[in-house]
């Protein structure tokens, strides 16, 4: 019985240690992120020569700062709790803890780099890469997991008949099913 209490105390200490590390790491990364995003000219103090940042250096400082901010946010969002975590409901699909923060940062970075014209072709290539990651992540957030299938009609509930009149959409299948059953049995 005493062993169970010692094990629980060890778990609480480990959770507190991990939480402290997460907050400290997030604070440090957040500070560096803020410095790179809002004060990129501070990089000139580290350089031996140079009076101004080149557009490429400014571009890289901004996007590295955004990435550090995303990692900092992900660390904060994934701090373990000391209480037991309740079991996840069965209808929620499993998700990666970094999916939403990195998807939103990738989309923001793609937008900003697409609108940067002073650093040559690198911003456009960077925009393509981060845009691909962001759009794919957005697709995973919206459509990942098992399909939701109607029990009555067997249609996939992720489909829609909105713009193009999809005949396989769940709403169309349901209307067809209701009309068919309203007429009664066919002879």
UniProtKB/TrEMBL annotation:
Keywords: Membrane, Transmembrane, Transmembrane helix. The chain crosses the membrane at residues 21-39, 59-77, 98-116, 122-144. The keyword Membrane applies. It comes from the Eukaryota. This is Uncharacterized protein. It comes from Heterobasidion irregulare (strain TC 32-1).
